[in-house]
tRNA N6-adenosine threonylcarbamoyltransferase
Amino acid sequence: MYVLGIETSCDETGVAIWHANEGLLAHRLYSQVNTHAEYGGVVPELASRDHIKKLLPLIRQVIADAQISKRQIDGIAYTSGPGLIGALLVGASVARSLAWTWGIPSIGIHHMEGHLLAPLMESDRPEFPFVALLVSGGHTQLIEVEGIGMYRILGESLDDAAGEAFDKTAKMLDLGYPGGPAIAKLADEGTPHQFEFPRPMTDRPGLDFSFSGLKTHTLQTFASTAKTRQDKADIAMEFQNAVVDTLVIKCRRALTETRLTRLVVAGGVSANRSMREKLQHMAREENCRVYFPRLEFCGDNGAMIAFTGCQRLLAGQAEPPEIKALPRWPISALRPLAPPQASTA
């Protein structure tokens, strides 16, 4: 089965083709970062317009890169939520129109399920069950995963997601957009232990997160300093350490509570080098394994949507021909994948 995957949940247009046995055949990504950088964040209307302009040319390029014809495509998967409603509607409209025209099934995919399953595209893939940490600009969640579509929320952010906190702190420090990479780069210049930052909600039971207080603490610290580049670097370092340490503490706690020995980390923030290093160190201490997607698939991409769509289409979960966009969509509401699962190479 050849599946065309389309991702348009926010400000990146991703297209890919996944084959059930051969794996990833081709993928392309167009990023709108330069468009939105001057505004300090994503402008929804501009994002939708760029998806309209870029999506069909990218689909043609990916089909050519895969060295197949459109007649060989057996199904289409697209991101139907959560995300920006206008951006989602662009991808959904194109996907449904192509599926109807070509006479093939299509399915809307949950954006965060795509992230969660991205490490399964690798040759060294985790087996079920495992604990997943989904950490991105819009979500920070710990999930117990028994299989595809079998998700139990263990904890989540009560306010800002970790990625959102990175972006807002970067804007506070005048580092530009996107904030995560800017904070991480500046943190490398920091001097340790110049400031003391809290690790939110780690002094109490539970697996929920809260980063709004940490953001406020960062603002107050910045307001009381001389605001030199070194001051900013020291603050960036301690802010990043506080976020990463909080995530590590909660992951360790989730593994202990579930008695599982596999941790999957996915979403845009999973590219953060400091977080990867500390989680790998934690995994060695706990005698467990941690899995990440490759760096190019940490952020939004079409490959994860094509892969996830392939699993669901193989299980017969195609949907009626309706354009569906869900800006809010809890991952716990997804349908389980009917066993047995097909091999994905």
Q: What stands out?
A: The chain has a mean pLDDT of 94. The chain has two domains: 2-117+297-333, 128-292. The longest helix spans residues 229-258.
